[in-house]
Write a structure and sequence with these properties.
16 strands, alpha/beta, Rossmann fold, UDP-N-acetylmuramoyl-L-alanine:D-glutamate ligase, six-stranded parallel beta sheet
Length: 518
């Protein structure tokens, strides 16, 4: 989905209203309904079904908030609305929806003021906070009642999830900068199309996860916008997961080969295999050192595990493939790297795989070459996907991690062009770049993923999708979205500090439900 500036979004709104004939109050209604549905999903996931506090400003963002408050009230959730303005400041579509909210039975409490809220307006069962104080038209630092409202939201958000409508109040939606106080949201439900500032690195802590609310902007208008960079959304991916035919069998959905593991890192290849099994692929084969084959087989009973020639230290030997009776072309996709180590034999094996593979190939972790050997990538004849984290990307390009992180989009594009590959630069806002220069940013995932094994899960999932016939760019975008969404679901149901890679694997089925009919 294309990223837009605030000016582009205003023009899309104008055209939709004036040319397409959709009244502004209808667009506001759709926006509020969509945000309310997102709030309800979050409440159900987290088990926070108590009172929702909605903090609203006087502009269109506040109008969206009035619709949210009314809809949540009609859904049966207790709602408390705080108005960060005087009633006589409301006008236009916002005033229309304020009055509809009042008619529905939601009464605002006193406006935010310097003394804070009276004690009797604070609900003991307050569970979630929704804010629609300021929208995309902010200029300068928030002042007066708006600044006080932002402070209130952040105070409440110390112990409760916060959902921002369109953009976190106080954030510049074009640059991602904040001139003063800014809401620290856990979820930003952005309206119509995602704003460019939401994916800026400096905006990460204010934005949280991004959900896009469709309000019916005509697709013909959107097509006219530039599309060099986009945001990965469910709407972009659902067509990749059609209904399965009743007469299908395990051979219908491909056969993936995973190569990796070592005595020290048996868990890496096992988790990649567990994830591949959950990807929907028909068959999973694992080639791993003989020293750990029984361990991996016990961990992943659905996979076919083969013990290959290994060295005394429990790593794969260079001749692991030549002593095996299977040809790479017998598989529909190949992954090499998880737990492989960077031993001389392992790197020799990687080169042999790169030279002989004709099916889609994923190079992960230890299989990614350093800058001295990066030229090998351009000679690979198979469709190629690279999945480096920032440190591995720095090694691949002969750079440093700080430089990679400072220019994530450009770095991923450059690496993709040099290798003639699809590149998945992992980390917050994972970037999927194509050799053509097109790139997409993933909005799912959370800080709880900063633990071992997460990359192995992504690699196995990606390889499994490739084996089912997805082209590399589609498989990469779907894999990073599902991977992050599964982690979000695990975090909402438990807590970010405690989630593990195997928790993410367990939630993949739930994540798939967002993209798949059945």
């Amino acid at each position: 989905m294309k990223l837009v500036t605030s000016a582009q979004m205003r023009e899309l709104d104008r055209r939709t209203i004036e040319e397409f004939g959709t009244p502004g109050e209808v667009l506001m209604e759709r926006a509020g309904q969509g945000v309310a549905a997102a709030v309800l999903r979050l409440a159900e996931l987290t088990g926070r079904m108590g009172c929702v506090r909605v903090v609203a400003g006087k502009g269109n963002n506040g109008g969206d908030a009035f619709v949210v408050a009314r809809c949540l009230h009609e859904m049966g959730l207790p709602v408390q609305l705080i108005l960060a303005a005087e009633r006589d400041a409301l006008q236009g579509d916002a005033l229309i929806h304020f009055e509809r909210m009042l008619d529905a039975g939601v009464q605002p409490v006193a406006p935010v003021h310097a003394g804070g809220l009276p004690p009797d307006t604070v609900h003991a069962d307050l569970e979630l906070v929704v804010e629609g104080i300021l929208g995309t038209g902010i200029s300068g630092a928030p002042r007066g009642a708006t600044g006080e409202a932002i402070a209130l939201v952040n105070q409440l958000g110390m112990h409760r999830p916060v959902i921002a409508i369109d953009v976190p109040s106080g954030l510049n939606s074009d640059t991602g900068d904040a001139a003063g106080a800014v809401v620290q949201a856990d979820v930003t439900a952005t309206i119509g199309l995602p704003k460019r500032g939401l994916v800026a690195p400096q905006a990460a802590d204010a934005v949280g996860n991004i959900e896009v609310i469709d309000i019916g902007i005509p697709s013909d208008y959107i097509v006219e916008l530039p599309d060099d960079t986009g945001l990965i959304t469910p709407a972009d991916l659902r067509h990749l997961f059609p209904r399965r035919q009743r007469a299908s069998h395990k051979g219908t959905y491909g056969h993936v080969l995973l190569i990796g593991g070592s005595r020290e890192f048996s868990g890496a290849i096992a988790m990649a295999a567990m994830s591949a099994v959950r990807s929907g692929v028909g068959l999973v084969t694992v080639l791993t050192p003989a020293a750990i084959a029984s361990t991996v087989a016990a961990l992943v009973p659905e996979a076919m595990v083969h013990g290959a020639a290994d060295r005394v230290d429990g790593t794969l030997a260079a001749e692991a493939m030549t002593n095996w009776s299977h040809d790479l072309d017998a598989f529909d996709a190949v992954l090499i790297g998880p737990g492989l180590t960077r031993s001389l034999d392992a790197q020799t094996l990687c080169r042999a795989v790169m030279e002989s593979a004709t099916v889609p190939l994923v190079l992960d972790a230890d299989a990614l070459p350093d800058a001295e050997n990066a030229g090998l990538l351009a000679a690979v004849s198979s469709p190629l996907v690279l999945t480096p984290h920032p440190g591995e990307m720095a090694r691949l390009l002969g750079s440093d991690t700080a430089t990679v992180q400072a220019e994530r989009l450009q770095t991923a594009r450059s690496a993709a062009a040099q290798a003639g590959a699809t590149v998945v630069l992992k980390g917050h806002g994972t970037v999927v770049a194509q050799s053509s220069g097109l790139a997409a940013i993933n909005p799912t995932g959370n800080p709880g993923m900063a633990s071992g094994g997460m990359g192995d899960v992504l690699a196995g999932l990606l390889a499994g999708l490739l084996a089912q016939g997805m082209v590399p760019n589609d498989a990469a975008r779907a894999a990073v979205f599902l991977h992050g969404r599964a982690a979000d679901m695990a975090a909402w149901q438990e807590a970010q500090p405690s989630i593990t890679a195997t928790d993410v694997i367990a939630m993949l089925g739930s994540a798939f439900r967002e993209l798949s009919v059945l």
